[in-house]
Amino acid sequence: GASIKDIVKVTYFFADIRELPEEIQIRKEVFSGRPFPVVTAIQAAALGMPGLRLEIDVVAELNNV
Fold first, then answer.
1. Residue 26 burial by CB count (10 A; 0-12/13-18/19+): exposed, middle or buried?
2. Mean pLDDT, the chain, as a whole number?
3. pLDDT at 49 over 90
4. CA distances from 51 to 2, 13, 33, 47 (A)
5. What is the average per-residue pLDDT within 20-26?
6. pLDDT at residue 64 greater than cutoff 80
7. CA-CA distance, 13 to 9, in Å (whole number)?
8. Residues 12, 41: contact at Cβ < 8 Å?
9. What is the C-alpha separation between 61 and 54, in angstroms, rounded?
10. For residue 37, what are the contacts with CB-CB under 8 A and spacing of at least 6?
11. C-alpha pair distances (Å), 6 with each of 1, 14, 40, 48
């Protein structure tokens, strides 16, 4: 039941951290009009599959009141 507006933290795992500026541009588009989530960017020696350039982990906050 979560949506992108519920995301409060994003962790990016890059194969090449030099791709971070491109990600920042995309993040500005995706999260425009609302506060940005907390972000951590990490360069990883290897990701989950050969050839994978980016893995993303998100935390969303749901207010089920």
1. exposed
2. 92
3. yes
4. 29, 13, 33, 8
5. 95
6. no
7. 13
8. yes
9. 23
10. 7, 8, 9, 10, 31, 58
11. 10, 23, 17, 26
Look up residue 44 and give its DSSP letter.
-
Question: Which residues in 27-61 are b (16+ Cβ under 10 Å) and which e?
Answer: beeebeeeeebeeeeeeeeeeeeeeeeeeeeeeee
Give the pair of three-digit tokens for residue 31. Answer: 């999260």
- Tell how strand 54-60 and strand 7-14 pair up: antiparallel
Predicted confidence (pLDDT) per residue in 24-46, tens digit: 999 999 999 888 899 999 999 99
* Structural tokens at position 3: 């949506």
pTM over 0.70: yes
